[in-house]
Amino acid sequence: MGEIGELHIGGAGLARGYRNRPDLTGERFVANPFGAGRLYKTGDLARYLPDGNVEFLGRGDHQVKVRGFRIELGEIEAVLDRHPGVRRSVVTVHEDRSGKSLFDAENKRLVAYVVPDWRRQSEAGDEEDADSGQAQVSQWGQLWDLAYAREAPEDDPTFNVSGWNDSYTGAPIRADHMREWVDTTVRRILSLGPDRVLEIGCGTGMLLFRVAPHCSHYCGSDIAPNALRYIERHKDHFAGDWSTIRLRRGAADNFDDLAPGTFDTVIINSVLQMFPSIDYLVDVLAKAVRTVTPGGAVFVGDIRARPLFGSIPWRHPTGSGPGWAVPGRALAAGAKGHGHGGATGPGSGLLYCPETVSPRHQPRGDPASPWRCPQ
Q1: Which sequence ranges form a coiled-coil region, renumbered to this chain (predicted)?
Q2: pLDDT tens-digit profile of 217-233?
């Protein structure tokens, strides 16, 4: 009398067992030590009172009953603990703030508390970001491969501006504006005195056909095979020695076959906005810096400034700014925005934050002029 124990029930109304659960039936339905038949182990804690009543004292395990359903809290905790970002979890039953009794079935709810595993969560997040970034790069490659499949202009195949649309109006950019942009970019690249050049994202060769004749070696790299086939198909229009040209297919971060110090100039022009993340950008720039010789340059052109991006919806832009030469170890940084210029029109793109470059490395006078940093 008065001792606490597990409540067992039996009698004519006792069930035969759990349907299709022989293991659980054998665990819960046990032989009756006091007579014939079996007893069911309820898992409830109870004791006899002196007046003959049975006092219910709760559960002997973590099972709860919510709105008529028996729930094993441990099973929920086990599922939560399998998540890579969870170090430990506890699930319990809470009542809402209405003030009703905890034993009001309609008032109870399950609440889980977790202790995060920040290390595993960070690793899992990095893997997800990397997978997402690679998927975005692959999608860009497919999109541009379709764009580069278009027919070349008959008058000048080296000046193929098909698909270059205004980021403000969505209309094709005027040819004279594009030619001014190309000529300005080429002039600034040539002012660096390039001889051995790697261009990341060479496209249909608007820069290649104009810069490569001044170089002893020019490697044009692009993720879209149709772009490389286009250049190869129109090599007769190249003004220099075609044997100095190498075309390679690969994403911007693929430097596997490029040895350190192979080039004196790396060009990343009008492709930065299509990078999937700032981490991808930093990785590409770091690899590009290792590829250039001491005193060489990494030319990053046709980029959009994050501080100026908010003004685009209210006033017509004057055009894409010219590129900056970023030699040495200077790494630009960006932030995701709502769109970018170039050949795709409005859409998600990477924006550039000038504040991430040390003020002592910034140019004096014209902020758009080329500038250098020490190797």
Answers
A1: none
A2: 999 999 888 888 889 98
